[in-house]
Fold this sequence. Notes:
Rossmann fold; 11 helices; alpha/beta; about 35% helix; globular
Amino acid sequence: MTYEQKDLLGLRKLSKESLHLIIDQAKSLKEVLTRENKQVLTLRGKTFVNLFCEPSTRTRSSFEMAIKLMGASALNLNVQTSAFKKGESLYDTVKNLRALGADGIIIRHKNGGAPHFIAKHLDIPVINAGDGYNEHPTQALLDIFTMTETCSNLKGKKVLILGDIAHSRVARSNIWGLTKLGAEVYVCGPKTLIPPYIEKTGAKLIYDIDSIIPELDFINVLRVQYERQEIGYFPSIREYRSLFGLTSKRLEKAKKDIVIMHPGPMNRGIEIDTDVADGPHNVILDQVKNGVAIRMAILYLLIIRGCK
């Protein structure tokens, strides 16, 4: 089976079969991370461009690591010193990068749809590393991969995505991916941070976390995104934590095998307590490690086994 598309732009239109293919490939490649010599030469001679037009630590570093472990080269474009600052368009930038010999472009952009736009104009794979409020497919894939390590079949499992749903591309991609795999997805947060169309995605909306927490198998806690909030969406941090923060007291009502996740970076003491973030139920560092395996798998499938 080959990967069905030239690019990885989102999970909304990705088939269930492709989701399984990526996760299975990541399982195989994760074994590489346990070796003394972690590098493989599968993509030797290939060059991938990291075009990050928004700040990133985990995603960018994870892609850099994945590229190097697959034997390829990473070209990290510094947007602050690039021709963007002189007014060059995104279209012209990626066309020039292709002319320089890029074999794939990984892009994060503040505008939703930017990766889709450039993918239409390039004959090389484009990977969406986050576009506006739209999607963050590789984060969702690593989240789902992490869940499958604790429970191989997600059908019927109850997953809560907690927090700022309106501004979260991670939430959207997780919803699309998890519902395709048969999970029951719930979203919870302040009314001002819940988009009006959310139930059309297949997720179930709740406002009282305490009413659902005893039934949950997974909780994915989202960061309070101060940089995306031009106006106040809730009265105070104290109120947010009281109503929607994942506290140790709140977690006492959960199943003994509940799994706690967070895409990072965390605001400790706000959306999640430190003793929960570092507690026995968390798999947050596993998510980080799995991010490298997932991105290795995507690079492999797009270049070696995918449609070119």
